[in-house]
Inverse folding.
């Protein structure tokens, strides 16, 4: 184990990772502001190509603001206690490398947020079904801010079934595409 | 803490998350096959829109295959002991929802792999600088498999400086874009 990982065993870290599932139903329990700030800090440590950090996030917690977001976002179901809107910041893009995959960096930040929220017992899910134009108006975003994901957050209500996954052998190949077993002795 | 998270405190989970950095220099130490398989299982638990799992991964460990990958991939520096090539599987796309952001699902899987590798003391980084056409030939991939990332893996050699990040107040807004402090009492 990496000495920088403190007391967490890799196995237990991966166990947290593997028990995450999409949560779309939330209790009324509020989210402590300090917890939310921890999650945001974790999110901002995500990989970003050429360290461009061409991203911007709006955290919505106000009751009427959340109601408005839900009214305009078909993908936002349940009643989350907070929503993080994750955006590409186009004004930073001339500083980015030619790789320029700012959507992918925002996506890694969102995944880091989802995993960290799960570690804190919070439920969340990535939502892409919304109208970016309307969202931009509701949240007073300038033109060069492009929303990519909404992430609703709240304490999970009810069961959280894990989604079924394709058999591993269908999606992992070894050495060349389609070879379904690792080379022996590798 | 979520009871499903076992013995990991949320704080220690987030500490692992926040100490990850891009690693591009590796020792000769081999990666245990069981560790690699754990990492792949963790990766496959990543979020995927509409549970489409329109993804495919090729794990390259052979010495000469790794040498060929490095020769054709400017972004692949250092001498990793394994490379995971993360792809969109276009043949699954008619099953996906109209959101159809398969690149973003693959990106979440890659981020999950990066974090899990870090928990195991491995170094990794996401690489997008390569020629997909050449990669497809080298790894015998059909046309509908679209490589998005290469992820080199190996035990870190030397220091791993954390990249500097923009001030939090530049990238996080509260309630509306540009408001730099949470509402009091929120």
């Amino acid at each position: 184990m990496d000495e920088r990982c403190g007391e967490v065993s890799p196995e237990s870290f991966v166990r947290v990772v593997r028990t995450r599932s999409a949560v779309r139903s939330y209790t009324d329990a509020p989210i402590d502001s300090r917890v939310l700030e921890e999650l945001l800090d974790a999110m901002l440590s995500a990989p970003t190509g050429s360290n461009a950090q061409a991203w911007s996030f709006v955290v919505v917690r106000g009751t009427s603001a959340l109601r408005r977001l839900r009214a305009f976002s078909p993908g936002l179901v349940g009643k989350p206690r907070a929503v993080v809107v994750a955006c590409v910041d186009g004004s930073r893009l001339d500083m980015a490398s030619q790789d320029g995959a700012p959507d992918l960096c925002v996506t890694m930040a969102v995944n880091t947020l989802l995993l960290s929220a799960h570690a804190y017992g919070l439920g969340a899910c990535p939502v892409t079904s919304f109208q970016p134009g309307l969202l931009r108006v509701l949240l007073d975003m300038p033109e060069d801010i492009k929303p990519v994901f909404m992430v609703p957050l709240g304490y999970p209500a009810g069961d959280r079934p894990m989604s079924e996954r394709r058999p591993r052998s269908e999606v992992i190949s070894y050495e060349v595409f389609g070879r379904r077993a690792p080379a022996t002795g590798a």
Confidence is low (pLDDT under 50) at residues 1-5 of chain A. Chain A has six helices and five strands.
